[in-house]
Every structure is written in C-alpha cells, then in structure tokens.
Write a structure and sequence with these properties.
The complex is a heterodimer of chains A (300) and B (311).
Chain A: H1 24-35, H2 37-45, H3 48-60, H4 63-68, H5 82-103, H6 105-113, H7 117-121, H8 127-145, H9 147-161, H10 163-168, H11 170-198, H12 201-226, H13 236-249, E1 257-258, E2 261-262, H14 271-292
Antiparallel strand pairs in A: 1-2
Helix pairs in contact in A: 1-8, 3-9, 5-8, 5-11, 5-12, 6-11, 6-12, 8-11, 9-11, 11-12, 11-13, 11-14, 13-14
Chain B: E1 6-15, E2 18-28, E3 32-36, H1 43-50, E4 58-63, E5 66-67, H2 72-77, E6 79-82, H3 94-104, H4 109-122, H5 138-150, E7 156-160, H6 168-184, E8 188-193, H7 196-202, E9 205-210, E10 213-219, H8 220-227, E11 230-236, H9 240-249, E12 253-256, E13 261-265, H10 272-281, E14 285-291, H11 296-304
Parallel strand pairs in B: 3-8, 3-9, 6-7, 7-8
Antiparallel strand pairs in B: 1-2, 1-4, 4-5, 9-10, 11-13, 11-14, 12-13
Helix pairs in contact in B: 3-4, 4-5
The chains are: A mainly alpha (300), B alpha/beta (311).
Chain lengths: 300, 311
C-alpha cells in the first residue's frame, strides 16, 4: 500500500521464525558500529599483530629469506612454541579489552537510559534473547580478534611444520580456543552488566578499565599489606593467565602466563581458586543483568 | 467461543508484601476499553502484568483466550504497546527505530521497513521520520510511540496515558487517531488514563480501579443510551401533583424534589413533546428541562467514594 493513503491497516503477511529473531539485534548493532570510523580502524588495526606473527612463522620456515638479508641463523632467535601462541593471544586479548570497553557499554546502556527495554520486551522477545542478541555483537567481534586469528596461526604453523607437529601440540589449539572463549565471555558479561547497572556509556567504559586495573591494584595492595597471595583473586588478568597456562600446558607447565596475563612465579594460587573466582564473577554479572534487564523497574 | 478480550481471573500482583492488584475478576468484551483510576490505582501495573513484565502472585488473566502465564510469548505477539514514559533510542532515526521494533515483532525486514514508513505517515510524522528521535518534541515522541505500537499490526493495542504532556491541538490529534483506529474495527484497544475526557471520547467500556481493586465497571454505550431517557425538569404551577399523576399514567417513573423540581425516567417511545402537552393541559409551566446525563465523571466520583462517603 502506498504511504499517501495514510490509514491504519492490520498486518496479514508472513512472520519470521521466532528462534532466529534475536539476530535482528546484532544486525542493527553492526550497522551502527560500521558507521564509527574509529572503531573500524581500531578493529582493522588489531589484526596487525597476527599478521606480524604470520610473517614470523613464514620466515621461520623459509631460511632463504634470512640468507637474502644476510642474517643466517636468525631463525633460532624466535621459537614457535607455547610462549609464541600465548603471547599472541595475550596481545589480542588486551586489544579485545579496549574494544569491549568502547563498544560494550553502547549495547545496553542506551536502551536502559531511554526506557526502551519495555518496547523490546513487549514483543514476542524474551530477556534471554535480548541479552543473547546484545552479547553476540561482542562475542563475534572479540572472537574475530582473539581465538580466530590464534587458530589460524596455529593452522598455518601446522601446515608448514607438518602433521606430527600439529598432533603433538594440539593442546595449543584447544588452549587458544577455550582460553579465548573464557576471556571474551568474561569481557562480554562485564561490559553488558556494568553498562546495565550504570546506564551511562562513558561511565560504564571507565568502569570496565576500573574492574581490570584498579581491582588488580587493590589486590596487589592486599598482598603487600597482608603478606599473602590471596589478593590475586581480585586480579582478573592473573586469574585468566593461570587458567590459560593450564589450558595450554596442563600440569607440566613451563611458563607462568602470557604478556598482560601473567601469574608471577611463586605467587600461584591453587588453580581451582582461579576457576571459582571467574565463575563467581560471571554469576555476579548474570545476577546484575537479571536485575536490570526488565520490561519495567519495580519500586518496592 | 469465549468473546472476552481480557479476562481477569482472580489476578493478584504483589511487590514484596504490598498487594498492588488485589484478586481482580472481570471480563472485558468491548472494542475499546478504558482503564481509569487515580495515580497509584494499579492501571500501569495491570498493563505491565498483562504484558508479562510482572508475574502474578496468584490468579491469572487471559487475553483473547490466551493465558498470560502459559502463553506469554503468544500473548505479546498480539499486542501493540505504547508506554506511558519516554521509550526510544535517542540516537536512532524514527523510521529505523520503528522498523527495528516491527522486526522484533516478527515482520520480515522489507515489510518492517514499509510498515514503519506507513506508520510514520499515519501518525503525521512522515516529514521527520529520518530525524533522530532525541530531537523530537514531546508531542512527536508520543506519536512515534504510537507508530511503533501499531506498525506490526497488533490485534490488541495498549495505550498507557497517550495524551500525557500534549498541548490541546496535539491532544485532539492523538484522540482522533485513536478514534480512527478504533472505528476501523481491526483491533481492540485498552486505554489507560487518569483523564476522564480521553476515556469518554475513545472507549465504550470502562474499568475503574482504586487501590488495586475494581471500583466500578460500566458499559459507557449502555449508560449513554439509558441517560437519554432520564430528565430533570423545573416547573411552576399549583397542581404539580396532577401533572405527576398524568405522567405516571403515561408510564414515566417520577420523583418530586423541592421548588418544583421533578426527575423523570421516560419509557421507550414517549416523546418529550408529550411532556409539554401534558403540562399545558394541567396548567403547569416547564421552566427548564435537562437531559440529566450521568457522565463518566459522576460514575468515576461514585466509584471513588469511600464507604463513609468521602472521596
């Protein structure tokens, strides 16, 4: 019907299937994000490190390149081992923290600040689907920055090194995959819950950094004052680092974590404590989301 | 088949220890139903409960035959909701926002876009549909909220205080839109308001809430029909008694007040002209005649009266 008729008419057309309706949210969010030049450039620039890593792997397997520049034997300077992959994941994960701090708060806080949740949830659309839709934006972008390039590097190294290397080091791949997922889930939950709580984008972004850096400082203060290691429970990067070490190497560990995600030598907490602390943090975030993502706020 | 639009079946909602809706029982069948009540009566809570935002602590409600406890998603697919407060995303353009809402209601994206444009033209915002919602005036925001509520073609429209904060011309326009939607007969609407005039102009049934209870429920159409037979006259003359006897013989119910005032309920088929003829025959002058109208205001005030007669 042409718009000039200007009359109300009921809708009698087809409807989309309800199970994939939540995908509407990331589609709109990606349209918005694409408009931001800064985020687009930042996202593209974040692939610089994996690109350099890929070049290193290539050069490692092509001695002729070193011969060309007269640096024979230089390939022994860098080893493609657990440290290489963990460092790569560490760098990418830190960039993911910055990206999550920029785009995470913008997902939920405008809806809450403008009371738009009542409109979302007055439709055949649940709170879970809403959170899933919003979270998927972060999960997709952060995956593209962390475990996806990590696995590509692993596959490239395996391709050049051979099947035996791949099977011998398959734990690196699972470490990259699961380690990356744990990190981006924590980041996404924190970004959404903090922005749902404060309803103000800049404050939520600032809080994200606060939770990582100020809480780590607080933990370090506890350690110093109380002469203990339990303060590390407030240090999310420590917790993630110790989980990563286990995921990459199991019980036979040779490293103490990745860049930015390091558990200092001699200050290790039992591994279950790191898992438990991350689980508690996730539960707190889910509780905050459950409290705030509602069609209407109840004043008791 | 059950013809009720909304059936409240002992619906109770509590926030903590406080009962907000107290075992409501009613069957609303009208095309346009008004929810009236003073602030805090439970109107918005009732709408929010029907939308599934609050869980009933006991009892339930059915909307177009679907139970809100067991078929919440299906119920919401039938509803268009225009909330009381500002609800939008300030940075989004009007048409994009309405399109998003229509897509979430299940419309495919091309249909959603088409309907979003139509809805914006329909509510009179066609020219500003590409502007960010945050830049709209209050009246425009109200219209945009109406647009998102109707874009997906609901079967039941919830309008929560739709004329809040509107100036008189904007209010008139909003009421006209609501009447137009109602008169097309494609959907039922529930209008929650504390403004009697809005409800009177748009609704044919009214549910009056007070302190979470149903204080009154009336069919305005029937009231209006009944009111047409109710007269109040003021007479001068010595033989009012004969006049009253003559009117009763014609089938009127009468009641005599002070200073020649008489209340009459005329039977069907009796014309007012006959009244003057009888009065002339009895040598009684009719100085004033009012079609006494038991307005919604009267109904509302009666409903609001406390048991001791105080408001």
């Amino acid at each position: 019907m042409a718009v000039y008729k200007k009359t109300y008419r009921p809708y009698e057309g087809e409807l989309t299937s309800s199970w994939r309706r939540w995908l509407v949210i990331p589609r709109y969010a990606f349209e918005d994000l694409h408009r931001s030049k800064f985020l687009t450039i930042f996202f593209c620039a974040s692939f610089l490190q994996p690109l350099i890593s890929a070049i290193i792997i290539y050069v490692q397997h092509n001695a002729s390149v070193f011969n060309l520049v007269g640096a024979q034997g230089a390939n022994r300077l860098i080893s493609i081992n657990v440290v290489f992959f963990m460092t790569s994941l560490g760098w990418q994960s830190m960039l993911a923290l910055f990206l999550a701090s920029f785009i995470g708060p913008g997902q939920v806080s405008p809806d809450l600040a403008n009371n738009a949740l009542a409109l979302y949830l007055a439709r055949p659309f649940s709170r879970t689907e809403y959170v899933l839709g919003k979270m998927s934006v972060l999960l997709i972008l952060l995956s593209a920055m962390t475990w996806v390039p990590g696995l590509l590097l692993f596959a490239y190294q395996g391709y050049l090194e051979g099947w035996d290397w791949m099977t011998a080091n398959i734990r690196f791949a699972s470490g990259i995959f699961f380690g990356g997922w744990i990190w981006i889930l924590i980041l996404s939950l924190l970004a959404l819950s903090l922005s749902a709580w404060v309803k103000w984008k800049p404050a939520a972004g600032g809080l994200m950094f606060g939770v990582f850096f100020v809480a780590a400082g607080f933990g370090a203060t506890i350690n110093a004052v109380q002469r203990t290691n339990w303060g590390h429970l407030f240090n999310i990067s420590y917790l993630i680092g110790s989980v990563w070490v286990w995921l990459f190497e199991g019980a036979n560990k040779t490293t103490n974590g990745a860049v930015f995600f390091r558990a200092p030598q001699g200050e290790e907490l039992p591994l279950w404590c790191s898992w438990a602390a991350l689980a508690v943090l996730s539960l707190i975030c889910l509780y905050m989301l459950a409290r705030k993502i509602r069609g209407t706020e109840v004043v008791r | 088949m059950d013809s009720s639009v909304i059936e409240l079946d002992g619906l109770e909602v509590r926030f903590g220890n406080r009962a907000i809706l107290k075992k409501l029982k009613a069957s609303l069948t009208g095309r346009s139903i008004g929810l009236l009540g003073p602030n805090g009566a439970g109107k918005s809570t009732l709408l929010n409960t029907l939308l599934g935002f609050h869980k009933p602590s006991s009892g339930t409600a059915r909307i177009l035959g679907r139970d809100i406890r067991t078929h919440a998603r299906e119920v919401r697919s039938l509803i268009g909701y225009m909330p009381e407060n500002d609800s939008f995303i300030a940075s989004m353009s009007g048409v994009r926002f309405v399109r998003l809402m229509a897509e979430l209601a299940g419309l495919p994206r091309e249909h959603a876009l088409e309907r979003a444009h139509e809805a914006f033209f329909y509510v009179g915002l066609g020219e500003v549909r590409y502007r960010a919602l945050g830049t709209y005036s209050l009246g425009m925001k109200q219209s945009a909220k109406l647009a998102q509520a109707i874009a997906h073609g609901p079967k039941l429209l919830f309008l929560d205080e739709p004329t809040n904060g509107l100036d008189p011309p904007a209010r008139t326009r909003m009421i006209q839109l609501i009447q137009e939607i109602r008169d097309r007969g494609d959907l039922h609407l529930i209008l929650s308001s504390h403004l009697l005039r809005d409800v009177e102009e748009c609704c044919d049934q009214v549910l009056i809430l007070k302190d979470g209870n149903i204080a009154a429920f009336c069919n305005l159409e029937e009231e209006r029909r009944a009111n047409r037979r109710f007269l109040e006259i003021e007479t001068r003359g010595s033989n009012n008694g004969d006049f009253l006897d003559a009117m009763e013989k014609l089938g009127c119910e009468t009641a005599q007040g002070a200073q020649g005032r008489i209340k009459l309920i005329m039977p069907d088929g009796l014309e007012v002209r006959r009244l003057y003829e009888v009065a002339a025959a009895q040598n009684v002058q009719i100085r004033r005649l009012n079609h006494k109208r038991d307005s919604l205001e009267d109904i509302f005030l009666k409903a609001m009266e406390a048991p001791d007669g105080r408001l």
